[in-house]
């Protein structure tokens, strides 16, 4: 343990704060060169990424009997919906419930897929999101005897040799792993993340089944009709595969913590991974404490500025993506909490967005095109991110999607016209070979979470003013690098909120919009979908 400072002395700043956004009261000091588990991280990451094409390669039939189980469970869910629920008033709600129950029966891989869907508000139908939110904290924990076996096998010692206390009851149990509170023999309070015993083998089998099944879902489900199931399986495979080795997660923690230091961003805190107690299936890390992200009253009672928490969340997340090319990829209420000093503690780094320099610059152009309302810049950036083939005729896309004409007001369209417009756009994009790159999906999903955070923490926030303030922050703080990276003359930069106003159907002369008002307009749009039985 690090001893507290003696009375009347200046507190010693932990040395590792120079390399990471860590807490001021360290249980140990992070020295990356003294962490033996890091030696194979690069090789593990490379092998994991290059194994995916083989796993999801087209095949006549997936190996083993897992396919039969999956087909039986999903077939029963969809079949019963088709016979009973399809004609009900809440058709999609009924299908969503049946799919969630099937996912829970099918186990970790499908529960994980459900958890990702549950944090994709705005990307997936509301009924599906609502049902799969039940997968977040209702995953049964593994018996302690199995947890003990995994920990002792990976650490090479008995639990009693390593820990003076190890809580048999987990703090949380998720699809891939569960976490336990513990105390090391040397006195440090820690959290121990333990992988479920058979999850790695099961995930591989399930991905093979998903890849085989996906082509049959095209056009057969309401959810799949607006997407490309085979591409979604590839996306899911890229997302879940790296979660199966905790050495990668521990390195993600160090890399994200380092990126915040490079940005001068001290509004976030990352728990320190243990120098030696990290293996493929066990991750020991510093334990942090704070307020649940939904505990607004306790934050306010403690004097926490919830508006500042929202602003920190937006800026830090966007900076990581645009400047450093790395960001936490799975923001939701269970993966972060607010500390008494207002800083945000980030947890669970199994899913992390990483972009090489080329993708980072493309992403930067996408964001710049959005703030200046330049459609051509945005489409070019999407192409370079991998969302469109490199030989795509962008001018043809603009004409086909009607992006060169007057915008449609979603609040004025009839339900039938709105559905037709969405189907037309999706069909055209799929025809061009469009897909959702992993990094872009994670970024948009996180934005949806932060959007919901504003609703809870700062509903009266003026969105136009906040967008302007954040944009100016980036120009003033990172302007030289940003404009150099995208090859734009900073003198020509001009913020344009026209696209934002068009998207929610408000007059372009409107100068103020609170989040509460935005929610009202969204509710109007959603109600139009419900009139057609779409939620």
From TrEMBL:
GO terms for molecular function: ATP binding; protein kinase activity. Signal peptide: none annotated. InterPro entries: ABC1_dom, Kinase-like_dom_sf, Prot_kinase_dom, UbiB_kinase. Residues 165-535 form the Protein kinase domain. Pfam families: ABC1. PROSITE patterns: PROTEIN_KINASE_DOM (PS50011). This is Unannotated protein. Belongs to the protein kinase superfamily. ADCK protein kinase family.
């Amino acid at each position: 343990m690090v001893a507290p400072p003696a009375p009347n002395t200046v507190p010693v700043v932990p040395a590792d704060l120079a390399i990471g956004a860590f807490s001021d009261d360290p249980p140990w000091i992070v020295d990356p060169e003294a962490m033996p588990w890091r030696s194979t991280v690069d090789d593990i990451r490379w092998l994991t990424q290059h194994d995916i094409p083989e796993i999801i390669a087209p095949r006549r039939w997936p190996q083993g009997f897992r396919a039969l189980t999956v087909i039986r469970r999903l077939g029963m869910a969809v079949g019963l919906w088709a016979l009973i629920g399809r004609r009900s008033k809440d058709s999609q709600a009924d299908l969503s419930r049946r799919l969630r129950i099937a996912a829970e029966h099918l186990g970790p891989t499908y529960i994980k897929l459900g958890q990702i869907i549950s944090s994709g508000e705005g990307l997936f139908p509301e009924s599906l999101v609502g049902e799969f939110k039940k997968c977040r904290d209702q995953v049964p924990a593994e018996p302690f005897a199995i947890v003990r076996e995994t920990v002792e096998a990976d650490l090479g010692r008995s639990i009693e040799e390593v820990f003076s206390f190890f809580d048999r009851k987990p703090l949380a149990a998720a699809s891939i792993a569960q976490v336990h509170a513990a105390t090391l023999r040397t006195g440090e309070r820690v959290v121990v993340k333990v992988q479920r015993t058979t999850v790695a083998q099961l995930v591989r089998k399930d991905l093979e089944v998903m890849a085989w099944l996906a082509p049959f879902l095209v056009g057969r489900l309401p959810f799949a009709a607006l997407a490309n199931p085979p591409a979604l399986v590839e996306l899911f495979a890229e997302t879940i595969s790296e979660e199966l080795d905790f050495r990668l997660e521990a390195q993600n923690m160090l890399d994200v913590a380092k990126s915040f230091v490079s940005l001068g961003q001290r509004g976030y805190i990352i728990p320190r991974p243990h120098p030696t107690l990290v293996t493929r299936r066990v991750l020991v890390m510093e334990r942090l404490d704070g307020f649940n992200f939904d505990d607004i009253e306790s934050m306010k009672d403690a004097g926490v500025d919830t508006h500042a928490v929202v602003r920190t969340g937006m800026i830090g997340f966007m900076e990581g993506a645009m400047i450093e090319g790395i960001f936490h990829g799975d923001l939701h209420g269970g993966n972060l909490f607010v500390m008494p000093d207002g800083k945000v503690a980030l947890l669970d780094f199994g899913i992390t967005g990483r972009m090489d320099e080329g993708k980072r610059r493309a992403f930067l152009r996408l964001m710049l095109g959005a703030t200046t309302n330049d459609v051509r810049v945005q489409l070019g950036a999407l192409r370079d991110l991998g969302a469109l083939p490199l030989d795509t005729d962008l001018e043809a896309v603009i004409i086909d999607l009607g992006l060169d004409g007057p915008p449609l007001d979603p609040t004025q369209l009839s339900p039938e016209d709105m559905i037709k417009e969405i189907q037309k756009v999706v069909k055209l994009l799929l025809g061009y070979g469009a897909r959702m790159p992993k990094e872009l999906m994670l970024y948009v999903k996180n934005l949806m979470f932060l959007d919901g955070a504003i609703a809870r923490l700062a509903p009266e926030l003026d969105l136009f003013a906040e967008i302007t303030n954040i944009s100016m922050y980036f120009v003033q703080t990172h302007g030289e690098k940003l404009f150099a990276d995208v090859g734009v003359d900073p003198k020509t930069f001009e913020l344009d909120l026209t696209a934002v106003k068009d998207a929610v159907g408000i007059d372009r002369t409107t100068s103020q919009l609170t989040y509460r008002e935005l929610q009202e307009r969204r509710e109007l749009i959603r109600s139009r979908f419900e009139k057609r039985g779409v939620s």
